[in-house]
Amino acid sequence: MKINTIYTTIIALFMFSCAAGPDNPGVEFSPQMYHSTPYEPLSQIVDKEAGRWVSSNGEDVPAEFYNSNPYNAFNMTMREPVKGTVKRGQYLTPTFAPDDYAAADLLLENPLDSTKAILADGKALYTRFCSHCHGAKGMGDGKVGKVYKGVTAYTSASVVNKGTGHIYQVITHGKGRMGSHASQISPEERWKIAMYVKVLQQ
Question: Model's pTM, two decimal places?
Answer without folding.
Answer: 0.56
